[in-house]
Specification:
It contains seven helices and four strands; from the N terminus they run H-H-H-H-H-E-E-E-E-H-H. Strand 3 and strand 4 form a beta hairpin. The chain is flat and about 105 Å long.
């Protein structure tokens, strides 16, 4: 028998060949890879990036940010006067657009019918750096607008002169039912009452099904038990005979082929 005629030898050759090829690949991977600095788990170094310094959000800064945020929501988000929102937006929001576009309401800010209730308030401070603060802002809708209360993610930044701008604004979640006017609530209640009245008028009680006599249930149960035993006695040997017959036919065909 020749060397390649043995399946076992062919498998051994394939395994050893794969092992021999894997050795240089592993060596090159270990040689040219870098484990990095275990004390720095911040990922790759981005050139020209300066990590901002953390700074507390002081009471004076909160007092200065509140009116800027309120005016931005009023003019940019609620679109009361979009032209005034240009002077309240930071460089990231202005990027790629012009003041004329903002005057027409064409701005990268999702419109929302914000009410004056709690305008400019925030739920909590996400982060606070020297010249930027991240806030989660809760905005209420105008009555009858059909909108729910909204939570938005906002960032305000401060320039060299100490003036604050809204540099980022994005709605996050909507909370609760939509805000409806008094007339809308009344119409909704009337529609619900009419639907309930119509459902009650079309409701028909189904007749109760009389219970079966106890004797009928017992009789059916005793008939089912002997019928099941009888079927097992008949079908069991029949199934065994069919299996034996099929096995004999298969052996007969195999014998005829080998003859």
């Amino acid at each position: 028998m020749r060397f390649w005629d043995s399946p076992r030898r062919r498998k051994r050759v394939i395994r050893w060949s794969a092992l021999v090829l894997a050795i240089p690949i592993v060596f090159l991977a270990l040689h040219f890879s870098s484990p990095g600095d275990p004390e720095n788990a911040n990922g790759p170094v981005i050139p020209d990036y300066v990590q901002p310094k953390r700074s507390p959000f002081t009471a004076a800064e909160k007092q200065a940010v509140h009116p800027v945020l309120a005016d931005f929501i009023r003019h940019a988000v609620a679109r009361q006067d979009p032209g005034k929102a240009w002077d309240l937006a930071g460089p990231d929001l202005r990027e790629g657009s012009t003041e004329k576009q903002w005057d027409r309401g064409d701005m990268p800010v999702v419109p929302y019918p914000a009410a004056d209730r709690g305008l400019g308030e925030w739920s909590y401070v996400k982060y606070s750096y020297t010249n930027s603060v991240g806030l989660e802002v809760f905005v209420f809708p105008k009555p009858g607008s059909g909108y729910s209360a909204m939570t938005a993610d906002a960032e305000v930044v401060k320039d060299d002169k100490g003036k604050w701008y809204v540099n980022y604004w994005l709605p996050e979640k909507f909370h609760g039912p939509p805000a409806l006017s008094a007339a809308q609530k009344t119409a909704e209640k009337k529609a619900a009452a009419a639907a309930a009245k119509k459902a009650r008028s079309h409701r028909v009680a189904a007749p109760a099904e009389p219970p079966l006599p106890q004797s009928t249930r017992t009789k059916g149960l005793w008939i089912a038990v002997p019928l099941g035993l009888l079927s097992l006695i008949i079908l069991g040997p029949l199934a065994a005979m069919i299996v034996i017959w099929l096995r004999n036919k298969r052996e007969q065909r195999r014998f005829m082929r080998s003859a």
